[in-house]
Amino acid sequence: MKQVKAETSGKPAQSGRRLHPLPIRIMHWINAVVMLVMITSGWGIYDDDVIIRGVHFGQFWRLGDWAAWSLNWHFAGMWFFTINGLIYLVYGFASGRLREKLLPIRPAEVVQTIIDTLHFKIAHDDITVYNAVQKLLYIVVIFAGVSQVVTGVAIWKPIQFSGLVSLLGGFQTARALHFAGMAVIVGFLIVHVALALLVPKTLGAMVTGGPRLDPRGRAREGHAI
Amino acid sequence: MKSPFRPDVVPNAGILDDHKPLIRSLERRGLIRGGLSLGALVMLSGCDLDRPESVESALLAIGRFNDGVQALLFDPNKLAPTYPASMILRPPKFNAYYDVVDVKPVSGATWRLELSGLIAERRPWTLPQLQALPQTSMVIKHICVEGWSYIGGWTGVPLRAFLERIGADLRAKYVAFKTTDDYPSSIDMATALHPQTLLALKYGDDTLADPFGYPVRLRMATKLGYKNQKWITAIEVTNTYPGGYWEAKGFPWFAGI
Amino acid sequence: MVCGHMKRVTPIRILLAFYLVSATTSVAHAQSTTPGGMPPPPGMSLAESAAMRFPQPVRVGDLLGRDVLRPVESQDVLGRVRRLVRDRNGQIMVVVDFGGLLGFGSRPIAVPVDAMVLLGQDMEIVAFTPEQLRQFPTFSPSGAADLADDTIIKVGLAKPSH
Questions:
Q1: Pair A127, A148 in one domain
Q2: Taking the CB of the first residue and of the last residue of chain B, which one, N or C, has fewer CB atoms within 10 A?
Q3: What is the tens place of the pLDDT at every residue in C10-57?
């Protein structure tokens, strides 16, 4: 059934909020671009002194044709990443969206969803309800993002924030944690993008807003595609 | 007095002749090459990728904003952590914008420290004069912008004491340094006055070695390695932004840690 | 001052445009940075090339166990320093546990100390490629005398490679 657009007819049944309100969509796409800036410029910085010996990214994967510009991209992008992320978290908590969409998570559901996914049962009829694996991944990536800000600030200002660096286990350990957080986010991205492409209506939903929701936050009867 | 910060001699390009075989092997190794980078991403609205200078200027403008943030975050009373002398790396790690074979040792006997700018005493200093001043030692962590770090120990004259001794205007904004390896740079006055900013004369218990800046190098605990110049020959106190070698190539100026 | 220019692309004035690949040429810093750890110029002896690298005193005991790196950006680990010995000719050799994976399958080879440099807390072999090192005979201890831990030897320096 075709998705019904917002009408001015005044019928209450058509005026529910969308799965992805406009602020969420804007923040999502800002984050998508900025995260890629941070990751690829970060790889440029990493190459300047590799953390895992023998592993480097190479010129093709780096943003910034050499170290100075990778740094400049990274130190510019960090503001957009952090401010956008902060607004997202405040919005998510204040609006109840994070609680509604990401909790609760039951371990049995996680196992079942993994099994289903591996059997390619990812039709996902109702995209307004996140399955257990989705919830877990989104929570993990949010924590990873916060961790990147914390470890990033620590390695940016290791003397002014020497207490934080000590808590993290020292400067080189903070660097390794920052790298590990990146690896988690990149892992998430690979899964996230692959699944979005496999269920393209989720991609459309993040552009146009997706199905309208009833007061419980579920897709309206007959509007779930 | 003519400022030592106004160069009147351009470096002689003939020195490259000695290094032609090295340069040829650099090219062979593909180290002088165009770079391909994944992900040229537009994050500013209305950014026109036909004019990447605008992207660069935007990044540099944010960089200057970051310098301001760093200046606000800098606590002049906060000391960097120190470590036991047993942890000093001997010898320390060498770095420069060229490899060690191009280091040009300085003669301590003929070395003079030229002074200029907003100061009272302009007579050049000799090495024995500097060595006669009270000195202090610190064992701190060197952090390079590249990402590596090591623990080193330096002994020298606190820059603050030296600036006071030469009657410098401590309200000036910048302290600029010139070196024998054409590696100028400058720091903010707040960092210059920090207790862990030294005109270092010794590493560990020994006189600075040639590749590490003999006779005098700048050593700060609160800035990245590339701000700590070796083989200093001149100091200027000024309110005019002096810039620096790496800053001209796009690196941040404040570079505080 | 400008580091590079991009290939001509259609001007796009979109809020969040996304481009996968951009080519930039960077000639500006070609003459300013010389890579670290270059091999000795052809015809120069190891001793001469080491002497050009401002050899610094270092304690033998501080070298044992150090990673031995390849002077490239990826900092491949070639092996670890196992021993320092004087061979039957009186030359100082670094016995490196070379090759293998994560410490398994390596074999000791003797590398002249003049072929190596100090790099911070590690060492690098600058005078031989990994291919050449693979041809080195396995170290045989006969005729070689270990240097005492407190012996001070001189080893050349290099800046990081990238």
A1: yes
A2: N
A3: 444 444 444 343 333 333 333 335 689 999 999 999 999 999 999 999
Query: Closest Cα partner for B164 from B80, B237, B240, B239?
Result: B237
By Cβ distance, the residue of C3, C77, C162 closest to A69 is C3
- Residue A223: pLDDT band (50, 70, 90) is low
Residue A119 shares a structural domain with residue A150: yes
Q: How, if at all, do strands B232-238 and B197-203 pair? A: unpaired
**pLDDT tier at A122, thresholds 50, 70, 90:** low
Considering the domain architecture, whether residues A201 and A145 belong to the same structural domain is answered as yes
C114 and C89 Cβ atoms separated by less than 8 Å: no
Chain C residue at shortest CA distance from B146: C160
Within a domain: residue A12? no
What is the C-alpha to C-alpha distance for residues A55 and C73, in angstroms, rounded to an integer?
9
Q: How many domains does chain A have?
A: 2
C43 in contact with B, Cβ within 8 Å: no
Arithmetic mean of pLDDT, A151-174:
98
Residues in contact with B223: Cβ distance below 8 Å, sequence separation at least 6, in sequence order: B187, B191, B255, B256, B257
Q: Tell me: the pLDDT tens digits for B194-227? A: 999 999 999 999 999 999 999 999 999 999 999 9
Residues of chain B contacting C36 with CB distance shorter than 8 Å? 99
A86 plus A108 within the same structural domain: no
* pLDDT tens track for C110-120: 999 999 999 99
ipTM above threshold 0.95:
no
Q: What are phi and psi of B42, to 5 degrees?
A: -95, 120
Residue A195 lies in a domain: yes
Residues A63 and A109 placed together within one structural domain of the fold: no
Residue C125 CA to chain centroid, in angstroms? Answer: 4
Same domain, A109 and A87: no
Chain C residue at shortest CA distance from A67: C162
Of chain C residues 68-127, which have a CB less than 8 A from chain B? 118-121
Contact C106, C96 (CB under 8 A): no
Q: Does A201 lie in the same domain as A129?
A: yes
| Same domain, yes or no: A83 and A123 | no
Name the residue facing B36 among C21, C58, C120 (closest C-beta). Answer: C21
The domains found in chain C, sorted by start residue, are 46-157 (2.30.30.240)
Contacts of A44 in chain B (CB under 8 A): 37
Pair A194, A183: CB distance under 8 Å? no
Shortest CA distance from C70: residue in chain A: A54
Structural domain range at position A135: 104-206
| Cα nearest neighbour of B30 on chain A | A59
* Secondary structure (3-state) at B50: coil
Structural class in CATH, domain B50-248: alpha beta
- Give me the percent of chain B exceeding a pLDDT of 90: 79
**DSSP type of residue B234:** E
How confident is the model at residue B31, as a pLDDT? 39
Q: For the residues of B155-220, what is the DSSP string, one character each? A: EEEEHHHHHHHTT--TTSSEEEEEETTS--EEEEHHHHTSTTEEEEEEETTEEPPGGGTTT-EEEE
Q: Does residue B25 register a pLDDT over 70?
A: no
User: In chain B, what residues touch A76 (CB-CB under 8 Å)?
Assistant: 43, 58-59, 62-63
